[in-house]
Amino acid sequence: MMTLYSDPTCPLCHRTRMVIKEKAIATHIQDITTEDWPEEVAAALPYGKSPVLVDRELILFDANIIIAYLEERFLQQPLTPSDPASRAQMRLMLHRIDYDWYSLWEALLGNKRGQMTQARQTIRDDLTVLTPLFESTPFFMSQTPSLLDCSLAPLLWRLPMLNIKLPAKAKAVEDYAERLFARPGFQASLSDSERAMR
Questions:
Q1: Residue 27 is inside which H or E element, if any?
Q2: CATH number of the domain enclosing 172
Q3: What is each CA distance from 1 to 27, 68, 138, 193, in whole angstroms?
Q4: Tens digits of per-residue pLDDT, 4-25?
Q5: How many domains does the chain have?
Q6: Peptide bond before 8: cis, by omega within 30 degrees of 0?
Q7: What angle do CA 125, 131, 137 make, to 5 degrees?
Q8: What DSSP assignment string belongs to 169-196?
Q9: Does one domain contain both 42 and 110?
């Protein structure tokens, strides 16, 4: 069985766990912090950050690389569109989610002096502007669950913890989030620490 080493509070680890649960992949999930790496895993990591997937002799790091590997290896419950144009659009939006929002994570946690308020405002404003995309389909830009949903769900789950309150006109975002949170795959992906965030 594969093992995923996962920080129980990290949103990128949460994203990876959600993909595993949505695809129903048999995986041992091992909670870990940066000081707890097994010696043989630590030796293969250039950055010492989770998530890390160990599949026999293969050791993968970086959430996006792990997710791409899982999506290509396990064909059940596909989370990427079948046609090239839709896949490209999904990848563009995944890039925006990482570049525009997850890049603000340290600022959102208060680890970058004086940047927390602006980071919160960016997330709030961007989600509000994108509200029509959350209204048009059951899932984000899709009729079926995709990697976009797995990437957005951990961020949306953490909004109260980050003291980000969306305006009333972004109600469609809140409704979308509640639909995601009710999914068995999302519920199964939550660590105990994440359940305590709400």
A1: strand 27-31
A2: 1.20.1050.10
A3: 6, 18, 33, 24
A4: 999 999 999 999 999 999 999 9
A5: 2
A6: no
A7: 155
A8: GGHHHHHHHHHHHTSHHHHHH--HHHHT
A9: no
